[in-house]
Specification:
The complex is a heterodimer of chains A (122) and B (136). Chain A has 122 residues and is of the alpha/beta class. Chain A has a single domain, classed as HprK N-terminal domain-like (Udp-n-acetylmuramoylalanyl-d-glutamate--2,6- Diaminopimelate Ligase, Chain: A, domain 1, 3-Layer(aba) Sandwich). Chain A has helices at residues 3-9, 20-25, 37-40, 57-66, 81-90, 101-110, and strands at 13-14, 30-33, 48-52, 70-73, 93-96. Chain A has a five-stranded mixed β-sheet with strand order 1-5-4-3-2, sandwiched between helices. Chain A is globular. Chain B has 136 residues and is an alpha+beta fold. Chain B has one domain: Heat Shock Protein 90 (2-Layer Sandwich), CATH 3.30.565. Chain B has five helices and five strands, in the order βααββαααββ. In chain B, helix 1 (17-28) runs antiparallel to helix 2 (33-52) and helix 2 (33-52) packs antiparallel against helix 5. Chain B is globular. Classes of the chains: A alpha/beta (122), B alpha+beta (136).
Chain lengths: 122, 136
């Protein structure tokens, strides 16, 4: 699923600048909705999107370590500017939606974006 | 090739910078993405532990023939019961750390999962040294 389509489905705003070209070409294969960074770190996925209500720098760091390509903040949350800058520097796309975590995940799942069911790792 | 990092115990916002820096180094060396990711995740969890439990410390990370070796050392309180600390879900982290998305009791189990070898040397009141090995 294209990141641009995810943005449309969640009626989300882009936080990392006007990057329509990036959003058009970024393909997302799996997603993960989680506020526990250690749980995110427990399950490796490729080309994935993280949906979270946390907005501290460790969210970006976690995404960086996992090669997560995009983060969607839920419940209308917007991280501080330094967190946005860190994401830009690491090439991670940020969007924000007014939907709560459960509904945002539900919308994407309904449209066919799956997650990972098992604890299978590298 | 050895990289040395000082790990701050007071500024949680920079926790992960050593892991971030070393990930770039590994990528530049042309090491396979799967190995880079395993090293990065394990190193990041260990770095977070050094910050939140060890009160800061130091890290030596190096690429050797056949493996990547990372050592974190701190002069913190030490781990009272290593076996218990290794259990998924067990954590002694503060509420502040939990609010940041950590302290779920997954740190050491995650490190063990992503490394080929992990050694913990710890003494209560003296500190902790953790050695991580990921084979190339």
């Amino acid at each position: 699923m294209k990141l641009s389509y995810i943005k449309t489905l969640l009626d989300a705003d882009i936080l990392t600048g006007e990057e329509n070209a990036v959003f058009e070409k970024t393909e997302i294969h799996t997603a993960c909705g989680c506020d526990l960074m250690s749980d995110v770190l427990a399950f490796v996925k490729d080309q994935s999107l993280l949906l979270t209500g946390l907005i501290n720098p460790q969210v970006i760091r976690t995404a960086e370590m996992m090669d997560i390509v995009a983060i969607c903040f839920v419940r209308g949350k917007v991280p501080p500017q330094e967190v946005i800058e860190l994401a830009k520097d690491r090439g991670i796309a940020l969007i924000t939606t007014k939907l709560p975590l459960y509904l945002a995940c539900g919308e994407l799942y309904k449209e066919g974006l799956g997650g990972k069911k098992s604890a299978e790792t590298l | 090739m050895l990289k040395h990092y000082d790990i701050s115990g007071t500024d949680f916002s920079v926790a992960g910078e050593a892991s971030s820096n070393f990930k770039v180094v590994l990528k530049k060396l042309g090491i396979s993405p799967d190995i880079v990711r395993r090293v990065s995740i394990a190193m990041y969890e260990a770095e977070i532990n050094t910050v939140v439990h060890g009160g800061g410390g130091e890290c030596d990370a190096e690429v050797l023939d056949g493996c990547v070796k990372i050592v974190f050392k701190d002069d913190g309180p030490g781990i009272e019961n290593v076996e218990l600390a290794m259990q998924e879900g067990y954590s002694t982290a503060s509420d502040t750390v939990r609010e940041l998305g950590f302290g779920a009791g997954m740190g050491l189990p995650n490190i063990k999962k992503y490394t080929d070898d992990m050694k913990i040397e710890t003494q209560v009141g003296v500190g902790t040294k953790i050695t991580l090995i990921v084979n190339l």
